[in-house]
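Tip: read the tokens left to right.
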């Protein structure tokens, strides 16, 4: 083989590789980054479906009240588009989270045709044969950072049944998808390392305190950090209690411990302190695991005695050996929605780790 032929082969191979690389880069650059806020859901379905029982059922579940707020706020902010709406405005294809719903028995449905095209014949064959297969998930269809979920059935009644059964899983997937955005908003100013260190020294736990939270109170067996802006005060208070009785983890016991913690959260008026308002709205409790420990989470409304101030709280009573570590998160944000601030506090507590 001559050197000229060898050089030509190398040159052609290099050009092909370069062209392939450029095509790949161009493909990546052609997709914009998805836009939108957390807890936002775009529902894509035909207009008659949206106007009927399927749309009503979806709104009932996905816009159910977020637990628990002084004024009602929905779990998700739902928007509806038809496929024509999507094609009419390119920006409508650049949002973050979509739920595409179609009736596979309707051959003339534009949304069903979209589902068939996106999922392909193999998945459509499975949908026809397997009653347990009625959802699918895709990513980055029109923009980077997109989550697109598909839900399909053979009639409106079938879709409603599957919509109800799949709600917990889909809601969890949306919240998981939002975590990157929630984390960015929560730690916009990084971490307050001295405060995180103080929490570890005082209570023996790792908790990543956001950089814009400052020390409010530090006394024996109690620590309170808070973020103050013109529109809100967002707080995390920690106190340890002796674990003596399982009744401490019942609702009355949790409220009692929280109110003992709240005495140390004092308002501006003389004798004013934080208490749990269990009269006007309920306190909800949930059992879960956090940092490898058993936890009872409670949500409700707090208020200040002697002051007309209050807001939502999120409380964690964590069993750790012979103590109950209580982490209480509460928000004061008059005149504005509070869901995103509660979500950010929840995200902070999710970073909790116990030493060893």
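Filled-in amino acids:
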């Amino acid at each position: 083989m001559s050197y000229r032929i060898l050089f030509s082969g190398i040159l052609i191979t290099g050009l092909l590789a370069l062209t392939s690389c450029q095509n790949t880069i161009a493909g990546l650059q052609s997709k914009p980054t998805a836009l939108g806020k957390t807890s936002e859901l775009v529902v894509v379905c035909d207009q008659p479906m949206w106007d009927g029982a399927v749309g009503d059922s979806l709104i009932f579940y996905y816009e159910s009240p977020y637990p628990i707020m002084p004024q009602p706020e929905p779990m998700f902010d739902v928007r509806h588009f038809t496929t024509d709406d999507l094609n009419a405005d390119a920006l409508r294809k650049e949002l973050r989270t979509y739920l595409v719903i179609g009736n596979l028995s309707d051959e003339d449905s534009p949304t069903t045709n979209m589902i068939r095209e996106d999922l392909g014949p193999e998945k459509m064959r499975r949908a026809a044969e397997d009653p347990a297969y009625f959802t699918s998930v895709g990513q980055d269809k029109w923009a980077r950072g997109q989550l697109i979920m598909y839900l399909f059935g053979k009639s409106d009644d079938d879709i409603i049944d599957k919509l109800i059964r799949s709600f917990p899983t889909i809601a969890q997937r949306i919240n998981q998808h939002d975590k990157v955005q929630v984390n960015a908003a929560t730690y916009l100013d990084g971490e307050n390392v001295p405060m995180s260190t103080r929490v570890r020294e005082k209570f023996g736990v790792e908790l990543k305190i956001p950089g814009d939270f400052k020390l409010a109170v530090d006394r024996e067996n109690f620590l309170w950090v808070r973020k103050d802006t013109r529109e809100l005060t967002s707080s995390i208070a920690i106190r340890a209690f002796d674990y003596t009785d399982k009744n401490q983890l019942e609702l009355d016991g949790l409220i009692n411990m929280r109110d003992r913690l709240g005495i140390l959260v004092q308002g501006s008026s003389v004798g004013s302190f934080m208490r749990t308002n269990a009269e006007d709205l309920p306190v909800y409790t949930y059992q879960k695991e956090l940092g490898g420990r058993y936890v009872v989470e409670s949500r409700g409304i707090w208020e200040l005695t002697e002051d007309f101030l209050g807001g939502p709280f999120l409380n964690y009573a964590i069993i750790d050996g012979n103590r109950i570590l209580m982490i209480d998160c509460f928000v004061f944000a008059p005149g504005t929605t509070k869901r995103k601030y509660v979500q950010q506090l929840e995200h902070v507590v999710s970073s909790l780790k116990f030493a060893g």
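The chain has a mean pLDDT of 92. Residues 156-186 form the longest helix (31 residues).
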